[in-house]
From TrEMBL, chains A, B:
Sites where the protein binds NAD(+): 77-90, 283-295
Free-text comment on the cofactor: Binds 1 Mg(2+) or Mn(2+) ion per subunit.
Organism listed in the record: Geitlerinema calcuttense NRMC-F 0142
Isopropylmalate dehydrogenase-like domain ranges (all copies): 5-354
GO molecular function, one term: 3-isopropylmalate dehydrogenase activity
Subunit structure: Homodimer.
Cell compartment(s), UniProt: Cytoplasm
Record-given protein name: 3-isopropylmalate dehydrogenase
Top-level class of the enzyme under EC nomenclature: oxidoreductase
NCBIfam families: leuB
Function: Catalyzes the oxidation of 3-carboxy-2-hydroxy-4-methylpentanoate (3-isopropylmalate) to 3-carboxy-4-methyl-2-oxopentanoate. The product decarboxylates to 4-methyl-2 oxopentanoate.
Swiss-Prot/TrEMBL keywords: Amino-acid biosynthesis, Branched-chain amino acid biosynthesis, Cytoplasm, Leucine biosynthesis, Magnesium, Manganese, Metal-binding, NAD, Oxidoreductase
Family recorded in the similarity comment: Belongs to the isocitrate and isopropylmalate dehydrogenases family. LeuB type 1 subfamily.
């Protein structure tokens, strides 16, 4: 038996409920695959602010560092929206990414045949869509210095952020992207704004240079505005997309929404060494928190990504993904993905259906 | 009779052909409305590079400044793609925006019932969509200093751009947006990334402060990633959107593509004083240039925007827009918007149909 120490960060809103389901699923699949999980909980986001005043207490970061993987649910809520920046839930999330050096964010956007009608796009446009967005996560305008609100010589305020990448930052995310494309259909589209931004020009130059090391990969480049258009127009053209932090934030959400059901989408954030963080794409949905209405499937699929990318246990990951498809085939639906003729269930009942399927 | 001096910038690719149609339409509507146009041509983009070495010759900028409005077609093409940045077509466009201080870019994305099936989105999702994106055009990361590719202390290259806005820059685009919303449905959505970026925080603070001067406008705020999702999920929720240069570039293209027919979409770029620039959203389509295949309607609708926003001649603008709807109703379609049962026409024939309709 393998023994893994996993840090759980339930966070805010629906976080705790969906985390409960994911933990049960992990335990069940662990028994089948001879994996033991040693779960330890820690605070992040609003929950951490309320308890300690900080959205990312030092203890949380230590626990994460001291584990093989981190399973995160969701953070934030109206309650903490108007706090000053250092005490906001998002700051905790950015601190976690920086603290664990999670430079590579993998965001799959895959259309499930069972849920295809949830898409706002025509069936023939989205049928078979299977995109992986590889987003750089610890650089770019999110972290560039200088940043702040300064006073100019004429006495007015000026808000400033710096969009910057070094060659080595580009290379390391580029390699992850090429390697990701190798495990997929072998097509990589790099997205930038090289016709306007110098930082994008360097990005394009380095990604193009890397391509010679991956002769099996078909590399293309798109400007970010065009990429946004192409995602709407003809998303099937994409296999793997690699881009910077801000463009990745925007495009991965647009790609996610092509599926029409972001309650289904997991993500992985990986560093060079140390634990990865696995979390759903959706938010903390404070309006339905605590009502047993949340869809736990993205959280469960995040646990599957943890097994696949964080713990190198692909069979266990497969089992979870199969179980998810099976409950969908059986017609179980939480409110966000409900459609006519299907069986409405709450968060807990969806969890039970998953355990049955396993 | 009013007499207007108009600078024409046909640019590259299909630019000259679609410009010819727009000029004929302007002449025809001018006769009906007692408007006289004194057209002067000038070079920009690739055409200007070939003739003078610069994508924006000084003479072009002077001619533009010395006119009441500028009608631009499209710039760029493979031929000039690998030139150094100062000699690229896009640099000419950015120089024109900066040189004329065109800080406000209006990009409508309106679904025409005649073309609704061209959309990749479901009919019920896009029916009635009518969005105006007000994009800041002379600030933000497009123009912020410092920018460039520098060498770090460790000897590696670092690409840097600066995303910055001052209070006065935000206020002036904010006012245009509130006033635009007043002429529309009275709903304004400001898009930023205030949960991460200080420049966005200042943006949100200023836009919120301005709102007290426009009590008739319903103001909301969205983060840019969520805005991209909402455009895909439920675009009808939007009336007027205001955002910075880069976010506006991405979101206005995504919004445009909701219509499925970007060959139909015009835009206006306005300054505090001096001439505005009016141009289609689509590019120069070098692959079909000179073959009489281009769709001139976005160019023609740009001429209508010129009449409306640049020359304050709304009746003449109305006439042109009516003519466009009429040719569509009559079934005329260029290749990009062709569908079964319609009458295929080339660029010139579409122009003749418009003159007939007028
Ligand atoms: C909450 C926010 C800081 C975060 C981001 O912008 O990265 C979120 O939008 C995401 O994509 O994970
Ligand atoms: C060509 C390019 C510089 C330009 C921009 O990014 O502004 C274009 O994409 C646009 O939106 O007008």
């Amino acid at each position: 038996t393998h023994n893994y120490r996993i840090t759980l960060l339930p966070g805010d809103g629906i976080g705790p409920e969906i985390m409960t389901v994911a933990v049960e699923v992990l335990k069940a699949v662990g028994q089948q695959c001879n994996l033991q999980f040693d779960f330890q909980e820690a605070l992040i986001g609003g929950a951490a602010i309320d308890a300690t005043g900080s959205p990312l207490p030092e203890e949380t970061l230590l626990k994460c560092r001291n584990s093989e993987a981190v399973l995160l649910a969701a953070i934030g809520g109206y309650k903490w929206d108007n706090l000053p920046r250092p005490q906001r839930p998002e700051t905790g999330l950015l601190g976690l990414r920086a603290g664990l050096e999670l430079f590579a964010n993998l965001r799959p956007a895959k259309i499930l045949p069972q849920l295809i009608d949830a898409s706002s796009l025509k069936r023939e446009v989205v049928e078979g869509v299977d995109i992986m967005v590889v987003r750089e996560l610890t650089g770019g305008v999110y972290f560039g210095q200088p940043k702040g609100i300064f006073t100019t010589e004429t006495g007015e305020k000026r808000g400033v952020n710096t969009m910057a990448y070094t060659e080595s930052e580009i290379d390391r995310i580029g390699r992850v992207a090429f390697e990701t494309a190798q495990k997929r259909q072998g097509r990589l589209c790099s997205v930038d704004k090289a016709n306007v931004l110098e930082v994008s020009q360097l990005w394009r130059d380095r990604i193009s240079a890397l391509a010679s090391e991956y002769p099996d990969i078909e590399l293309s480049h798109l400007y970010v505005d065009n990429a946004a258009m192409q995602l709407v127009r003809a998303p099937k053209q994409f296999d793997t997309i690699v881009t910077g932090n801000l463009f990745g934030d925007i495009l991965s959400d647009a790609a996610a929404m092509l599926t029409g059901s972001i309650g289904m989408l997991p993500s992985a954030s990986l560093g060079a060494s140390g634990p990865g963080v696995f979390e759903p794409v959706h938010g903390s949905a404070p309006d339905i928190a605590g009502q047993d209405k949340a869809n736990p499937l993205a959280q469960v699929l995040s646990a599957a990504m943890m097994l696949r990318y964080g713990l190198n246990q692909p069979e266990a990951a497969d089992k979870i993904e199969q179980a998810v498809l099976q409950v969908l085939d059986s017609g179980y639906r939480t409110g966000d993905i409900m459609s006519e003729g299907m069986k409405p269930v709450g968060c807990q009942a969806m969890g039970e259906a998953l355990l049955q399927a396993l």
